[in-house]
Q: What sequence folds into this?
C-alpha cells in the first residue's frame, strides 16, 4: 500500500518516472497478505499510461485492475477504477463510452456511501457531458458535481466550510 501511495503521489506531481517504478515494485510484493496487491498497482500503471497518452495500454491495465477488484468483492475499488477508465475514454475522445460506463453505477455509489468516488465520477461525467454537448435526464441543473454536494449535505449536515 505504501509503495502505491508513493506512486500516486509521484504521478500527481508529474514524476512519470518514479510512479511506474513504485507500482512495479509493489506488484513484486504481492502474496504477503495484501489481497489488493495486484489491483492497486495495475490501476496506477493505467493512470501512468493515460498521462503518457498510451490509451490502449491504459484501458487494458485499468480494466484488469477493475476486474481484480470485482473478484475481490470490492465495489468501491471497482468503482474508483471505473472512474479512471472513464477518464481514459475521455482522453481518447470517447465521451459516450465514459457515460455508458459510469451512469449505471452512480446510484450504487450512493448506496455504498462512496461519496469521494461518486464525486470523482460526477466530475468525469460533467466533462463527458461537456464534450458531448448534451444534457441527459437525471441531472439537476445539468451539473453532477453540484447534485453531489446537495446530497452529501443532506446526509451528514456538514457544509465542508472551514
A:
Amino acid at each position: 500500500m505504501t509503495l502505491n501511495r508513493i506512486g500516486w503521489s509521484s504521478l500527481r506531481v508529474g514524476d512519470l518516472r518514479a510512479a511506474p517504478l513504485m507500482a512495479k515494485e509493489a506488484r513484486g510484493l504481492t502474496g504477503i497478505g495484501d489481497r489488493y496487491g495486484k489491483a492497486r498497482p495495475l490501476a496506477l500503471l493505467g493512470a501512468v499510461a493515460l498521462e503518457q497518452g498510451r490509451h490502449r495500454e491504459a484501458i487494458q491495465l485499468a480494466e484488469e485492475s477493475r476486474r481484480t477488484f470485482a473478484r475481490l468483492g470490492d465495489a468501491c475499488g471497482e468503482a474508483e477504477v471505473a472512474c479512471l477508465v472513464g477518464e481514459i475514454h475521455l482522453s481518447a475522445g470517447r465521451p459516450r463510452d465514459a457515460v455508458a460506463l459510469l451512469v449505471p453505477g452512480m446510484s450504487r455509489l450512493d448506496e455504498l456511501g462512496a461519496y469521494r468516488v461518486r464525486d470523482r465520477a460526477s466530475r468525469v461525467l460533467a466533462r463527458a457531458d461537456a464534450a458531448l454537448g448534451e444534457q441527459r435526464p437525471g441531472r439537476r441543473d445539468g451539473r453532477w458535481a453540484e447534485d453531489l454536494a446537495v446530497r452529501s449535505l443532506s446526509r451528514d449536515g456538514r457544509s465542508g466550510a472551514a
Summary: The chain is about 70% helix and 0% strand. The chain has a mean pLDDT of 80. The radius of gyration is 16 Å.
